[in-house]
Amino acid sequence: MKLVFGIPKGSLEEKTLGLFKKAGFEIAVNGRSYFPAVDDPELELMMVRAQEMPKFVEDGVIDAGITGRDWCVETCAGVEEIAELQYAKKTSRKVRWVLAVNQDSKIRSVKNLEGKRIATELVQVTKEYLRRNNVKAQVEFSWGATETKCPRLVDAIVDLTETGESLKANKLRIIDELLQSMTVLIANRKAWKNAWKREKIMLLNDLLQGVLLAEQMVLLEMNVSKKNFEGLVAVLPSCMKSPTVSELYGGAGYAVKVAVDKNKVREIISRIKKAGAEDILEYSLQKVIV
């Protein structure tokens, strides 16, 4: 038996393939093929655009795959959302679909869009947003480079932003937020009820989550004398369960290992050094399975 798994082609592709590599999978991508080779005989991979992934999963063409929650909402696909995967193209933050206009536009709110023209890839969500606000406007599907179309081709756009840099570069001003989205692992409902496929999907989720968690952490290893041991433990951050402690050869002190938040490691090192830690080593982590 094989699990057919969808890899999102496009903006999430490089990051997703990198996660699979760190998770222990060797994947060979041929630019002309939508079926990458993988060194797992129980997996069959397909490259599918994130926008199309929910429908292919709903229809059972793909058992499970990775996409954005926004595309599940846009397509109204009947799929099982298994887990959030905290990554996007550039960051681990949620991405936002925003309503934006040219910085010199007189449009200040959605109410000013009556009779106007809007370009977006997220057509159905945008139409529903306008309905909720009792605004009638023309919504056009955008085939890409949406931020460049305002104001010469359309009056406003609804576009995806992660950092806001592209909107600023195109002199656009955000006037509202329609939707926040996250990368998600989804599964076909029939496949999810199959015990073997469900177990395989959960294993993949565990491995990918382990890689994502490892990217946020580092391992610190240090030595400490017996007299400073209790003081050191008192200032160690409460990350995961508890530090690993082993006695040094000859009974001179202890070796201590602890996983910590990568973004806080500088201040942690300063704190533990003052508490008596010596011979401090920092390691990158490949996977953290909790």
Mean pLDDT: 93
Give a short account of the largest sheet: 5 strands, mixed
Overall spatial form: globular
Fraction of residues in helix:
25-40%
Q: Judging by the overall fold, what is the CATH architecture of the largest domain? A: 3-Layer(aba) Sandwich
Number of strands: 16
Overall tally of structural domains: 3
Quaternary structure classification: single chain
Number of H/I helices: 9
Structural class by SSE content: alpha/beta
End-to-end Cα distance, whole Å, is: 28 Å
- Report Rg: 24 Å
Strand order of the largest sheet: 4-1-5-12-6
The SSE order reads EHEEEHEHEEEHEEHEEHHEHEEHE
| CATH homology-level superfamily of the largest domain | Periplasmic binding protein-like II
Textual characterization of the structure:
- The structure is a single chain.
- The chain folds into 3 domains: 3-91 and 183-214, Periplasmic binding protein-like II (D-Maltodextrin-Binding Protein, domain 2, 3-Layer(aba) Sandwich); 95-181, D-Maltodextrin-Binding Protein, domain 2, CATH 3.40.190; 217-284, 2-Layer Sandwich (Alpha-Beta Plaits).
- The mean pLDDT is 93.
- By secondary structure, it is α/β, with parallel strands linked by helices.
- Helices cover 29% and strands 33% of the residues.
- Strand 2 (27-28) and strand 3 (37-38) form a beta hairpin.
- It has a 5-stranded mixed β-sheet, sandwiched between helices.
- It is globular.
- The two termini are 28 Å apart.
Topology of this structure?
Elements: E1 3-9, H1 13-22, E2 27-28, E3 37-38, E4 43-49, H2 53-59, E5 64-68, H3 69-75, E6 80-85, E7 95-102, E8 117-120, H4 123-132, E9 138-141, E10 156-161, H5 165-169, E11 172-181, E12 183-187, H6 189-193, H7 195-215, E13 217-225, H8 226-235, E14 244-247, E15 253-261, H9 265-274, E16 278-284
Parallel strand pairs: 1-4, 1-5, 8-9, 8-10
Antiparallel strand pairs: 2-3, 5-12, 6-12, 7-10, 7-11, 13-15, 13-16, 14-15
